[in-house]
Every structure is written in C-alpha cells, then in structure tokens.
Amino acid sequence: MTQILNRTGEPEWLSQKRVEAFGLYESLPVPNRKVEAWKYTDVSYIDLQSLKPAQVVQPVSSAEELPELVKARLSSTDVAGYLVFNGPDVVYKHVPEELASKGVVFTDLKSALETHPDLVRKYLYSIVPAEVPDDTTIAAPGTTPSKSPDPSEGKFSALNAAVWTNGAFVYVPRGVEVDLPLGSFRVMEESGAYTATRTLVVAEANSKVTFIDEQDSHELSDAYAFGAVELIVRDGANLRYVSVQNWGRGVTHIQRQRGDVDRDATLNSLVVTMGADLSRTEMQSYLRGQGSSSEMLGLYFASEDQHFDHYTLQHHAAPHAHSDLLYKAVNSHESRGVFSGMIKVDLGAQKTDAYQKHRTLMLSSEARNDSIPQLEINANDVRCSHGSTTGPVDHEQLFYLLSRGIPRASAEKMLVTAFLEDVLSRLPLENVVKYIEGIIAEKVGAV
C-alpha cells in the first residue's frame, strides 16, 4: 500500500497527513471480538497486507457510456447535479452552471484540491480525523482535531485517511439554498481489490442542501470498500444526507459517517444498508451548538448469510439540543444484524432532548439480531429515552393477506414495507423511496 501514498501533484500538507495516518494504521491491530465496539462482528478474515487498490477506470465523455447500474438510477432520480465514481476515481460529472453562479462548489475531491485548496485544507479530516485522539471532545471544524467523541476510532479510519483516492466535495455558501438534491453514484466492477473514498459536505450558515450518496455493484468476489463521510453544518444551516449501500455479494463494506452540527442547525440523515456480505457502518452526530438538531434514520434488510453492523452516537455537547434516532431492521434466512446505539450527554448540556428507538422484524427463526441501546448522561436536567424491540411477522396479518389470494412473497413485501414505512415516510425524496422499495421487493422474492 505504501506506493499509493506518494501521489504526484498533491500538496505537502496532505502528503504529510497520509504518512501520519499510514503510520497509525500500521501500528494498530485489526479489530477483534475482544474489543467491545467489535464484539459481534468478526473481521479477522480481512488480510489488509495483501489487499490491492482497484484499477483506475478511464473517464467517459457522455452519460450514455456509464455502467448500466448508474444509468438506471439516473433515469429515475431528480438531482441538480451528480458525480459518478467507478472504482477509485470519478469517471463522469454533471454540474449545472447555475450552481457555480450561486457560489456552490460541487466537484470531486481531487479536483477541489486544485481549484479550492484552502477550503479542502480547512475542512478535510476535521471531523473524521487522520489520527486517534485521546479524549472525548473535538475541535471546531476547520481546525486541527486533537480529540474525538468516538470510542472506536481505529485501524480502518486510519486506512481510509492514508489511502483514499477520491470522493465528493460539496460546499454551499452562507445563505444559499440548493433546491434539488446533489448526488454521488459509486460503482465497483473489479473483484479482488479495494476502494477507499471520502465524502466532504460543508453547509455554511443558513444554507440548505440535500446530498444523496449511493453505492452499487453486481456480485463480486473478495472486494472491499472503505469509506469516510464528513458532514459539517454551520449555524442555522440545514443538511439532509442520504446514504444507500447496495453493493453486490462478495463485498465487505466499512464506513464511518460523522456530522458536526452548530448552533440552531439541523442535520437529517438516512442510512440504508441492503448489500455486501459484511457491512459495518458508524453514524455519529456531534451536537456542538445550542439549539442544534439531529434526526438519524436508518433501515437495513439482511438476507441469506449477510452480516450488517451499525454503530450510532448521538453526542450532545451543548444545551437545548435535540436528537431523534429511529432504526428499523429486517432479518431473513440466516442473516445477522447488530445495532449498538449511544446517547451521550456532556456535563453542561442541560435541556437535552434525545430519543433512540431500534426495532427489528424477524422473517426467519434462523436469523439473529443483537441490539444494544445505551445512555451516558452527565447532566441533570435532560429528557432522554431509548428502547429496542424484536419480533416475528404477525401471523394473523400474514394469514389475512394469504387468504385474500395474495402470493406469500408479495404478502411479505407488503408487511415489510409497512414495517419500514415510518422511516421511509420521513424521507421527502419520492424516487429514492421507490428505489429502496424495489430492493425490498427483490429481498423477499416479490419481483
């Protein structure tokens, strides 16, 4: 891996960050199940020393030359602009001129290093750092992070910080509202290789933007995707972030997503996990400013022998902040689901209002789901609650549908979709919801 640290044309500060991160990566062991954060997920099969980076794919000149997976999504998604990544790098961009006229920067990270170097340097690594901090507080975005609220920083974050090749960069200036979503579509077509990408979204004060981050592939063999997402929401801004992971079988997916929310700002996030053999996603909101708000939605559907692990953190560092987490899970066949969620309230974060709910629908007696909701409260005037439920399909409801002549697969699709509806109904993106419902139909064999 050391050969990809030496990239021509990159600024010295970034090269130094990569070297430091790679040194950390080499010094840390691969997480094992003796570590609490990885207790239910075994990644010992990943031989990091033998991994090779995915080969660069040549850019295309028109959308008609894109992979069919991407063309199918673009034909049914309303976006103001989009980037397409194939393997390690961007292969196509569609960015309307009116975005630039408003001062919006929407491009890939590698290009942003050339056109907006000061912005990238200010924000990159600011909330998903290139080092493992030693405390429980993080610095303001745009400054060097020396501490972090995340107890599970480790080898995979250091790996991504060292070897990422490209990713999406979004910068929305103060007071600007982007009406239609911006999108990033990632595909992999190469087995036996890994990709490492980053997403950096910055919403300045009183701005508004929606960003859709989709990942898809056909079935592969021994492929890996290591990701990092940094979401910076300044005072009074509103950012909606949607992540849809639908890799094909044979992929291992490990990604950390973190949002940093300032005073009176709002971060709405949705994490959808449907693909890969093993998927580990960490989604954290750091409520830095008074009056900040975070809505964290998630849904995942594991089938066959898939293993999906989600770790969430609602970190309240300021008073009068609000967070609401709702994750819905479906497990069928011999799949395994893991949810570990923490609400953490710092000393002085009075009047915190935080909720956490995780519910699982089991379609098979052979499936398993482990749910670990947690609270860590260091203030005495707060309202915090958490809860978790797990249960099978209601047999009376299923019998009623079957008795009306509805095929079993269609009946199960209806029940699963209804179970997930209170998550999907909160997403004001109709085409994305239809896409997710289509994946659900495939999972239960209704198409």
Question: What is the number of E strands?
Answer: 19
Instruction: Describe the main β-sheet briefly.
Output: 10 strands, mixed
| Annotation field: number of helices | 9
Estimated radius of gyration: 21 Å
Overall mean pLDDT: 91
Structural class: alpha/beta
Which word captures the global form?
A: globular
- List the secondary-structure elements in sequence, H or E: HHEEHEHHHEEEEEEEEEEEEEEEEHHH
Number of domains: 2
Distance between the termini: 42 Å
Strands side by side in the biggest sheet: 2-1-5-7-9-11-13-15-17-19
- Low-pLDDT residue intervals, each spanning 5 or more residues: 133-137, 144-152
Strand content: 35-45%
Helix content: 10-25%
Protein name: Fe-S cluster assembly protein SufD
Organism: Deinococcus cellulosilyticus (strain DSM 18568 / NBRC 106333 / KACC 11606 / 5516J-15)
GO biological process, one term: iron-sulfur cluster assembly
Family: Belongs to the iron-sulfur cluster assembly SufBD family.
